[in-house]
Amino acid sequence: MIKRAHMTAGVVLAAVIVLSGCGATKSDKAKSTPQPASTARSGSAVGAPSADSASSTGESGGKQSSRPTAPSTPTASPSVAAARPLKDGTAVLTHCADTDDPYATVAVRNPNGRQGLFAVRISYKNANGFTMTETYDEVSVPAKSKAKVRVAVASAGPVDEIARCEVNPRAAAVR
What radius of gyration do the chain's Cα atoms show? Predict the structure, then answer.
């Protein structure tokens, strides 16, 4: 009786696998025909292939191929292209260039969860509001932090003519 119970469990398991097409591709299903459950040998072990169940083990035409017992699950692989683009940061002027310190200082804040490189644009204006020149600089800022950048205005002309500095409040994310 115990031997018959094992045989019956094996036949039922084989039938479930064949009928569900577990691990078979569309072309495998079209090529193979399930064997009736009554063709299994009485002496075969549970889950072991028998000579009569050639189509359920992947044998066809004398060639043997193996099929996975369960469908594989794709895993995500890290990709540089899949990384989200950085959000722009913010820039705030903390010091305008003058004769005592010919550097403009800007604080840049990074709202992102990773380090980024941000572009800072500063305009130098005279007393009449005319833009004498503009400078552009890049600053690396750690994730969720801020950094200061000092920008020399040596090419802006006479520093003593600078009345005010204006910084673009949007620090564009470069990378």
Answer: 37
CA distances from 103 to 70, 78, 119, 128 (A): 66, 42, 17, 21
Q: What is the DSSP string of 90-107?
A: EEEEEE---SS--EEEEE
The residue count for the chain: 175
Residue 23 zone, left/alpha/beta (φ > 0; ψ -120 to 50; rest) = left
90 in Cβ contact with 168 (< 8 Å): no
CA distance 114 to 89: 12
pLDDT category of residue 157 using cuts at 50, 70 and 90: low
Predicted model pTM? 0.53
C-alpha closest to that of 14 among 31, 35, 43, 42 = 35
Residue of 120, 132, 122 lying closest to 163 (CA atoms)? 132
DSSP character for 54?
T
